[in-house]
Amino acid sequence: MAHSTLLQQTALLFEGGGMRASYTSGMVVALLEEDIHAPFVAGISAGASNTANYLSCDGPRARTSFTDFAADPNFGDWRTFVRGKGLFHAEYIYERAGLPGMPLEYNWQAFQQNPADFRIGGFDIESGDTVWWGREHTRELPDLMRRVRASSTMPIVMPPVAIHGRTYVDGALGTDGGVPITVTEDLGYERFLIVLTRERQYRKEPEKFPAFYRTYFRKYPAVADALLTRWWRYNQTRDKLFELERAGKAYLFIPDVMPVANGERNVAKLNAAHRLGLEQARREMPAIKEFLGL
């Protein structure tokens, strides 16, 4: 395991982005190849999956989760959507596929043995609060997988997730708009390795159909409000991250190009995106190691 004082002071953060994580899962693989283990990891949405895979030290699962697994016949489509199970069949993807003997079996023992702390974020649809889950909430494998699912639940295309009497959707609707920087700063971290899923010049635009969201989520106005204001929070967060980068407090892994959208299902395109991400991560690894004091 790689050690340095700087590494032990640095938090690793993963942005969400649906199947764009096919690209950023290359960073998970590259870090594990170098035996680099951060003391704290946080992720939202697809970044929660990258977080879980990184903590289980499973590079092959990190890749497969966002590439070949999309060809699984139970992955979800319009038929599962019509049945109320989501365009992405989330209950299968997150809660069943990772069980022992299943196609995406999760290394629970490695996760338990990993000393790193972590947070994954969800959005409470009634209160509008951002909720953070860590080790104290994940005593068993189903606890972890249900929270990764909740964090990843894109509104409309995936059904909300109930946990202990509260109901959650995608954590990207909450604080910071999708990058878990504030919760990490609140825990005392001042140095960050941040894995983003959009190109450097990207700026999020306001939603084009606000009336639709107001109507669709009339029972849950906090969700509509969060969706309609997320663009502003997200852009503010990006500005903050670039300031941290200029100050030498953050290393930002930013895709040179993002060749897939968040809903991409084409396995060839997803594998190509992963290869590009892995190549970029390996290319930048000397600079990353220098930032981490390795």
Automatic annotation (TrEMBL):
Q: Which residues form a coiled coil?
A: none
Could you tell me which species this protein originates from?
Enteractinococcus helveticum
Q: Name one GO biological process term.
A: lipid catabolic process
| Presence of keyword Lipid metabolism | yes
Q: Where is this motif: DGA/G?
A: 170-172
Per its UniProt record, what SUPFAM superfamilies does this chain match?
Answer: FabD/lysophospholipase-like
* Keyword annotations: Hydrolase, Lipid degradation, Lipid metabolism
- Identify one Pfam family in the record: Patatin
- Show the PANTHER family listed in the entry: NEUROPATHY TARGET ESTERASE/SWISS CHEESE D.MELANOGASTER (PTHR14226), PHOSPHOESTERASE (PTHR14226:SF25)
Q: Does the keyword Cell membrane apply?
A: no
Q: Which residues form the active site?
A: S45 (nucleophile), D170 (proton acceptor)
The uppermost taxa in this organism's lineage are: Bacteria, Bacillati, Actinomycetota, Actinomycetes, Micrococcales
This chain's protein is named: Patatin family protein
